[in-house]
Amino acid sequence: MRDNGFEPNIIEYLKNPPNVNELKVICKILDLSAIDIIRTSEKEYKQSNISMNDTDDVIIEKIVRHPRLLERPIVIMGNNGIIGRPPENVLKLF
Q1: Matching SUPFAM superfamilies, A to Z (predicted)?
Q2: 39 contacts 45 by C-beta, under 8 angstroms
Q3: Of 29, 67, 90, 94, which sits most exposed with the smallest number of CB within 10 A?
Q4: pTM for the complete prediction?
Q5: 3-state secondary structure of 75
Q6: Is the pLDDT at 41 greater than 90, yes or no?
Q7: Euclidean distance between CA atoms 69 and 74, whole angstroms
C-alpha cells in the first residue's frame, strides 16, 4: 500500500475489537458472509462450535466474543475491501 502512496490506518483488533455493527459493515464491504471472515485455524474456532449452518448474526457474535477468530488483515479503501491473504490480494484494490 505504501508503495502505491497510501498510508494505512492500522487497527489493532485485539486492543480495539470490532463491534457487531462494524463487523456487519466489514462483511458488506467485502461482499462476504460472516463464515468467510473466520480463521478456522484458531483454537477459538473449535471452542466456539461454529457451524456452517450458523447465521451471520450468530457468527458475528462469536467473533465479538473471540476477536482472534477474525481473518486478518482486512484492508478497506473507501467502499472496497479485501482480505489481505495472500498479501498480493491487496493489489486488487489499486
Answers
A1: Thioredoxin-like (SSF52833)
A2: yes
A3: 94
A4: 0.89
A5: strand
A6: yes
A7: 13
